[in-house]
Amino acid sequence: MQQPERVRYYRSHRKIPAEDYELLLTLHDINLSNSDCMSFLGRIHGGDPRILPYVKRDVVNERAKLQEAITQQDMDMTVKYFERRKAENPEFFFAKQKDPATNFVTALFWVDGRARALYPKYKDCVFFDITFCTNRYNMPFGPIVGINNHLQTISLGCALLPDENIETFKWVFEQWMVVMDNDHPKNIMTDQDQAMATTIE
Length: 201
Known about the structure:
Layout: H1 5-8, H2 18-29, H3 34-44, H4 56-88, E1 93-98, E2 105-111, H5 113-118, E3 126-128, E4 141-147, E5 153-160, H6 166-179, E6 188-190, H7 194-200
Parallel strand pairs: 3-6
Antiparallel strand pairs: 1-2, 2-5, 3-4, 4-5
Helix pairs in contact: 6-7
């Protein structure tokens, strides 16, 4: 028997059934929007999402948990890969930042040996710009790039970041200077982000 409308929306009565959750995993993997997920699940149960024993907010919350778990799993795999590279080549450098509450890795910075060797030659002008970079983790990706004598771009470092705040940019530049023996570039070109400008200054 269908529950009364007023009971269905009580938080204590809202739950995504196991069979719907399994289907939600598939819908999440193919990257449907939350609204499309609700519509699809509604059709499975008769065509109207309003008859479901949960609401869109429940789907949003579950998908956020799924994304966080996937992101952390991939982060852990990346850290292990970096650790192997470091063991094979001491010139490879990486640093990670963790959330003190969850102990999850929230930021990564890395530089390979080739970049460390090239940096003293091509430090006259470097570029750091994250505005055009997007990825499946919804994390800003920040490459540090130089220009060689043939006007070709060369990677001088990379960062995967949780946000675009002053403290985050400060952490990136501090790690970069650690690996580059505190040898400052002559010029840094960026976008007009105020947080980045403040950090550089």
